[in-house]
Design goal:
This protein is an alpha/beta fold. It has one domain: 3-Layer(aba) Sandwich (Glutaredoxin). It is built from 4 helices and 5 strands; from the N terminus they run βαβαβαββα. Strands 1-3-2-4-5 form a 5-stranded mixed sheet. Helix 2 (about 30-45) packs across helix 4. The radius of gyration is 12 Å and the shape is globular. The chain starts with a strand and ends with a helix. The model has no long low-confidence stretch (mean pLDDT about 95).
Length: about 100
């Protein structure tokens, strides 16, 4: 299961990660977010040895959500060495997200 990032653990698990990180910003009430959840879970299983894959519930974690200017969900941010290097908004195919992770490895 994808990691649950929170305001409390975001710096430790995302910013300080030695591996590339995919962060899916989502909410329970968001239909498109529910469509992308299985894709994020598959990516977690596919890349768990090489990358960190997780989710931020925007309703429960306002600090991280605000810090990264998340206004639309789902939004997926890709981090490398603690910096945002790529951003995807909306539902996209698994292959597109996997290619972005591969490019960061």
């Amino acid at each position: 299961m994808a990691i649950e990032f929170t305001d409390a653990n975001f710096e430790e698990l995302v910013i300080k990660s030695q591996k590339p990180v995919l962060v899916d910003f989502w909410a329970e009430w968001c239909g498109p977010c529910r469509m992308i959840t299985p894709i994020v879970e598959e990516l977690y299983n596919d890349f768990k040895e090489k990358a960190v894959i997780g989710k931020v519930n925007v309703d429960e974690n306002p600090d991280v959500t605000t810090n990264y200017g998340i206004r639309n969900i789902p939004t997926i941010l890709f981090f490398k060495n603690g910096e945002v290097v790529e951003k995807v908004v909306g539902v996209v195919p698994k292959s597109q997200l996997a290619a972005k992770i591969d490019a960061l490895l």
